[in-house]
Structures are given as C-alpha cells and as structure tokens.
C-alpha cells in the first residue's frame, strides 16, 4: 500500500473484517459504551497502528466542537522557569489527550494580544496565559467572551478569572526570615519596577517579615529595569552595600543572574560577607563562589492545577477557581 495514501476507517474495517461504525467506536474511545469485545478492540487498534492511521483532527473537531488543543502564552521562553513550565505543560497535556500550542509575549501587551488572537483563530479549546503588565483589558475581554482561560504565575485581583500561582507573600516572608535568623541585620529585596501582583506580593512578604522582626526602618527595595537588569544592578547594588545592606533577596531567577554578575565583580571579601537568596535554583548558582539558597516553585503542582481547571472549564463552562501553591525553601550551605 502506498505510504502516501490516506488511511480511512473503511480501510481498517475491511482489514479487520468488521463494520466501519465498530472501528469508529474503538478509535474514539467508546468501546465500553457500545460494548465492543476486548479482543475485537485490540485487533482494530493493532491494525490501525500497523496501517499508520492518522485521525482527521479537523473533521473530529467539527463533530465535537473541540480541537483538543490548548494555547499557552508565556512571557519569555528563554527564562529557565518558563521553559521548564513549557516542558511540563506539554507532557501533562499529552497525558490528558491535548496538544499544546505555545507563544511568547516578551512582556509586551500588543504582542500578547496578537499571539492570543492567532491561537484562538487556530481553534484552541482554551488558554493558559502568563499575563504581562497593562494587559487587564485584554484578559477582561477574553473573560467577557466566555473564552476558557486560566492565568498562570500572575493574575489581576479585580478580574473574576481563574488563576494558579505561587503564594508569593509566604515565599518571601520565609526567605527573609531565613536571612534574619541566619544573623543578617539588613537584608534588602531586589525586584523589577513593574506593576504586577506577583512582584507586589513578593515585596509585601519581605516587608512584613522585616516589620515582624522589628526592622521595618531597615527594609529596602531595589528596583531594576526589566529591560536592562544588569546595568541597574551595577549601579544600585554597590551603593546598597556601602549603605549597610548585608544580604540580598532576589525576586526572580533572572534578577539573581544579573545581580550575581555584579556581586562577583565586587571581590571575594565582599562576597563572603553577604547573604544571598533567590528564586528557582539554576545551575548558575552552583558555579558562584558563595552559597545561594532559594525558593523552589512547585512547577508540576502549578501545571497540574492549571490544566485541571482549564480542562474542567472547557468541558463544563467557566467556573472561577483560584489556587495559590506554597513553594519550598531550599537552604544551600557552604
């Protein structure tokens, strides 16, 4: 048989000696519903595999109204955290019978809107979105149009939409308390100058831990420019150290990398005196000449929750569900 020929249900039925309807029941996972015998079902599946049968997804989606595809919009695929999530999302979605189509917003609302529009035009059944700054109107429009959607990592409290994220407040509270309990007197947090909830909550957790320790007046927040973090770090971190900062809490893994370059250039004497905590351990931490403890986000839990909520919304209509998952603090000792 020519490898170019499109294999049909009729071809499989003739090879198996059964009706086309029976083949359809088996290949669509309805063998129990239509009481197809186990041996017959196995024979049909074996023949379909041997004939390299490829289902017509377009026709199937027209019959069911669904394409079994999910659109995922992340902020930056080069970010190790999001590339890890993409890998897990693809694997977990496959287990649930879904294909994932990815796009990156690069933290740009207009690009995010274009990517979302393209994914919707491709017929995705629902969307998982890492929203960027100033994208509230876009997200609200999707909600108003009853598009199944789950926000990931970040969310907008004023919009009634499902989301899954880290409990950022608890994460930085725990990390700050660790630094204080380790004997550091004036740790500061290094964050991005963006108006997004995950960053606000990380700063809030840090400030609350400082306040509870009676060190509210020593709380300091360094804001880096998101598009030029290394330049911002080179300019601001030495000033903070000269002013008495003895530890740093980096609010993202990309901030960690930018700041570690700056601290490395300050020399080993300075490095030995400074406490360091980041988010999401990376191999770069292993090569730094001082221990960098970190908050590990439960990536698999976050992905499974997001997929579960989205698939439920696709099947049953949008019901708002919100999940904040706790991270795990990983202490790295010399």
Automatic annotation (TrEMBL):
InterPro entries hit by this protein: HTH_LacI (IPR000843), Lambda_DNA-bd_dom_sf (IPR010982), Peripla_BP_I (IPR028082), SBP_2_dom (IPR025997)
Sequence ranges assigned to domain HTH lacI-type in this UniProt record: 7-64
Keywords on record: DNA-binding, Transcription, Transcription regulation
GO molecular function: DNA-binding transcription factor activity; transcription cis-regulatory region binding
Parts of the chain that traverse the membrane: none
SMART domains: HTH_LACI
Domain of life: Bacteria
Matches recorded under Pfam families: LacI (PF00356), Peripla_BP_4 (PF13407)
Protein name, entry field: HTH lacI-type domain-containing protein
Protein source organism: Bacteroides oleiciplenus YIT 12058
Organism lineage: Bacteria, Pseudomonadati, Bacteroidota, Bacteroidia, Bacteroidales
């Amino acid at each position: 048989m020519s490898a170019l020929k499109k294999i049909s249900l009729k071809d499989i039925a003739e090879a198996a000696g059964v009706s086309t309807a029976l083949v359809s029941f088996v290949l669509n996972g309805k063998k129990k519903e239509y009481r197809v015998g186990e041996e017959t079902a196995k024979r049909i599946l074996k023949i379909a595999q041997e004939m390299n049968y490829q289902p017509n997804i377009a026709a199937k989606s027209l019959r069911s109204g669904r394409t079994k595809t999910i659109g995922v919009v992340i902020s930056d695929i080069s970010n190790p955290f999001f590339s890890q999530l993409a890998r897990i999302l693809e694997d977990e979605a496959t287990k649930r019978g879904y294909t994932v189509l990815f796009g990156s917003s690069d933290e740009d609302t207009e690009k995010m809107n274009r990517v979302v529009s393209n994914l919707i035009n491709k017929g995705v059944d629902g969307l998982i979105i890492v929203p960027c700054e100033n994208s509230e109107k876009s997200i609200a429009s999707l909600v108003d149009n009853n598009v199944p959607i789950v926000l990931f990592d970040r969310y907008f409290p004023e919009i009634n939409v499902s989301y899954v994220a880290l409990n950022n407040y608890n994460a930085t509270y725990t990390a700050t308390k660790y630094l204080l309990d380790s004997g550091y007197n004036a740790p500061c947090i290094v964050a991005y100058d963006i108006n997004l909830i995950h960053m606000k909550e990380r700063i809030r957790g840090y400030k609350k831990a400082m306040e509870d320790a009676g060190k509210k007046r020593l709380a300091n927040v360094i804001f880096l420019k998101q598009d030029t973090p290394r330049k911002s770090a080179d300019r601001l971190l030495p000033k903070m150290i000269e002013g008495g900062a003895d530890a740093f809490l980096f609010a993202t893994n990309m901030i960690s990398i930018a700041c570690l370059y700056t601290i490395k250039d300050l020399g080993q004497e300075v490095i030995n005196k400074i406490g360091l905590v980041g988010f999401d351990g990376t191999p770069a931490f292993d090569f730094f000449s001082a221990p960098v403890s970190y908050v590990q986000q439960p990536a698999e839990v976050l992905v499974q929750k997001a997929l579960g909520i989205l698939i439920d919304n696709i099947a049953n209509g949008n019901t708002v569900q919100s999940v904040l998952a706790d991270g795990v603090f990983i202490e790295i000792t010399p």
